[in-house]
Amino acid sequence: MAVQASEIDDTLKRLSSRKGVKAVVILNSEGQAIRSTLDPDLTKQYGQLISNLAQQARSAVTTLDEQNDLTFLRVRTKKHEIMVAPDREYLLIVVQNPVETTQQATPQA
Amino acid sequence: MAVQASEIDDTLKRLSSRKGVKAVVILNSEGQAIRSTLDPDLTKQYGQLISNLAQQARSAVTTLDEQNDLTFLRVRTKKHEIMVAPDREYLLIVVQNPVETTQQATPQA
């Protein structure tokens, strides 16, 4: 059962309006970006690097236990957090400011 | 400044006694397990797969922005959650039951 384009748009809209969310990229099962709030170059870079990473994470998880599977990946970095949700047909990538406590928002380029 | 063996033992003890923690593996900078609560085979598998994954995550992060760096990796799976903390000298891997509620264990060496 295919996900409707409107559902994808809704997801993009909902996520990108969240506080702290800096970027949203949605890839299809071929790893191609079908929605993105980033410019084309960054979209491509994020798409390739993060989908490869998600694939390796899934492969590690199923190698350790073939009954298991990846459901979610969080990559915390010095500057932000990259959250990766592998869906049935899509890979959802959300870049957000680290969810600390009550830190003041610092302007970021 | 080298971390004392007793500090590593303390970290292992502290983490493995936490509610929901199923396993703790500590690797040195060469990727060799120096402490583990798992049997040797699983320790080796976790060590190799998760340290490779952490390396790829770090590489993705620094490729996207060379001023950035990986600080923490969480791999959520159907069965449990694998948390990876790259320290200065060590890679800390904690396998725990998924944390659904409020507290989120963030292991620190």
From TrEMBL, chains A, B:
Q: Which domain of life is it from?
A: Eukaryota
Q: Name one GO cellular component term.
A: cytoplasm
GO-annotated molecular function: dynein intermediate chain binding
Q: Which is a GO BP term held by this UniProt record?
A: microtubule-based movement
Domain (Roadblock/LAMTOR2): give its ranges.
8-96
Signal peptide from the UniProt entry: none
Which is a Pfam family this sequence falls into?
Robl_LC7
Please list the coiled coil stretches. Answer: none
Gene3D superfamilies per the UniProt record, alphabetical: Dynein light chain 2a, cytoplasmic (3.30.450.30)
- Compartment(s) of residence: Cytoplasm, Cytoskeleton
Q: Which UniProt keywords apply?
A: Cytoplasm, Cytoskeleton, Dynein, Microtubule, Motor protein, Transport
Instruction: Briefly state the protein's biological role.
Output: Acts as one of several non-catalytic accessory components of the cytoplasmic dynein 1 complex that are thought to be involved in linking dynein to cargos and to adapter proteins that regulate dynein function. Cytoplasmic dynein 1 acts as a motor for the intracellular retrograde motility of vesicles and organelles along microtubules.
Which family does the UniProt entry place this protein in? Belongs to the GAMAD family.
Name of the protein: Dynein light chain roadblock
